[in-house]
Amino acid sequence: MPRTWFITGTSSGFGRRLTEQLLDRGDRVAATARRPQTLDDLAARHGDRLWRASLDVTDTTALREVVGRAFAELGRIDVVVSNAGYGLFGAPEELSDEQIDRQIATNLTASIQLARAATPHLRRQGGGRYIQIASVGGQVAFPAMSLYHATKWGIEGFWESSAAELAPFGIGVTIVEPGVSRTNFAGGAVLGEALPEYADGPSGQLRRMLSGDLPPLPAPGDPVKIAAAVIASADLPEAPLRLTLGSDAYEVATAALRHRLEALEAARDLAYSTDAGTTG
């Protein structure tokens, strides 16, 4: 049976790939983007199965209005996908206050506000799915990406907590954790002001990589395959809490989690020793 999806950030990347595949298989998509005219070609092919709205997800009032209008006009939305986001790179003191606020507003606050706007509708209709396009950067952390990681680790915590609250209403949650993929993510990245003190460190190296002076990171992830895996997850009877996609994502997440567990186990005796009533 065809489903109806609401997706943010559909002009490019995973949002665009999801929209294309869903329309091709006969589903309806409520697609939002800051420039919805980027979807003119899909509208010409698929007609009224593509519902479009202009939206800057950092405008919470507009976000609530668009979500409400989509549910009102389409009747039911089965899957809500929070996809809009970008990367802010640089050492913390290289970043401006405005850049920090914008990164958090786009990658973290907007996803939370989308959930707050859509949950009453999903609850009233008897259920649905949330899919959060996050990143393996919510499980690992690299230098020169601290603010980006802060938002991705934050949204992981938000959804892991919220999933338990939403389950009794028949609302499933899936956090998607892709690795480096062949999208234009790097092209849309924002860099802080270069400080000479960081030129020889990870921040300077990342700048040289993005400018083409150094080879780019390998990008094994195929956006088409990733989009297909995300869509398939929504067809499962039970929503998987996490989808880690890409060989690089699997490898770095596995290594990070093993290292974290080893460090935790090594500190077991210290942890227990701080309980009230213990000695030594």
From TrEMBL:
Record InterPro entries: NAD(P)-bd_dom_sf (IPR036291), SDR_fam (IPR002347), SDR_oxidoreductase (IPR051911)
Q: Name one Pfam family in it.
A: adh_short
Alphabetized UniProt keyword annotations: Oxidoreductase
**Family annotation (CDD domains):** 17beta-HSD-like_SDR_c
The terms under GO molecular function for this entry are: oxidoreductase activity
Q: Which PANTHER family match?
A: SHORT CHAIN DEHYDROGENASE, SHORT-CHAIN DEHYDROGENASE_REDUCTASE FAMILY PROTEIN
The record's similarity note reads: Belongs to the short-chain dehydrogenases/reductases (SDR) family.
Protein name listed in UniProt: Short-chain dehydrogenase/reductase
Which organism is the protein's source?
Actinoplanes auranticolor
